[in-house]
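re: ur msg from earlier - yeah i can do the phenylalanine complex, just paste it... oh wait u already did. ok heres what im feeding in:
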Amino acid sequence: MAITDTLRQLREEVESTLAGLQDTAGLEALRVKVLGKKGTLTELLKGMGKLAPEERPKVGAEINEVRQWLTGKMDEKQAELRAAEREAAMKAEAIDVTEPRKLPKVGSTHPITLVMDELIECFSGMGFEVMEGPEVELDHYNFELMNLPKNHPARDAQDTFYMDDNIVLRTHTSPMQARAMLSRKPPIRIICPGRVYRADELDATHSPVFHQMEGLVVDENMSMSDLRGTLEAFAKKLYGNDVSTRFRPSFFPFTEPSAEVDLTCTACHGKGCRICKDTGWVEVLGCGMVNPKVLEMCGIDSTKYSGFAFGIGLERIAMKRFGITDLRMLYEGDARLLGQLR
Ligand code: PHE
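and the outut:
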């Protein structure tokens, strides 16, 4: 085939390939195929040596013309493709600022923490100071100093988990009474919120892990009426003026006399319902005057000082506050439920 025809064919081929090109990568491949070291046009140039000398200038000029034309066309196409690619990239990265954003899931304060915070605020307002202590406690503080010597029958009601003979998971926050009296001088006015443990099966009203808040006041001339007044103020501050307290005689080795305290059921206002088991009252705490024997064991002169103590069950308060009848709801961690208890 004459070179002129070959060149025309090449032009046509390139023109149709260019028309169908989608991206700059394809264009680069075409450029190599035609103008590269082993490209069609380069090969044609190399073949010029075989031509008769008089033909060479004419053919050379022809080839050069085609090369210029091809280069121009390819540059044109390149600019066109680059612009299209930039446009597509911008579209792909575009952010729709009008689209509503996905809100992050925000948790809520756990009902027990919520109740704990409320009680702390309430008692802080009455001049109590927060004191915290260990959950893994010495038998000495948890039992002995609370007037529960080894083999005392009242220990049965507080069976717990033993790390060894002398170290237990505390069964109540009462060991903090001993820790406070041994480390401070009267007047003492503290509350001790925290987790406590008992070897109980989990059911609607029992859990092997639960929460209490201890209160202790030691001062001169403390009497049962100070205890009543304090707890009455606490009940009214937390639940309003139409809530009353009811003291029932009870027994704790570390208080004498001892009482259990009920609050008016806030679900039925004392009329009787499921939550208060038709009594109109909900039991929330144990309390009493600190046993003089405990004062003495903890280095406090019981002829000069007296005191009162109370231990509030935080689960009880939370159940009452939120109208829950099954304790387990507080521990299952179901976000659908917990989010509602605010
Ligand atoms: N520690 C007792 C209990 O867990 C409650 C209590 C505390 C009673 C302080 C009297 C005084 O049952």
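cool cool. The mean pLDDT is 91. ping me if u need the other ligands too
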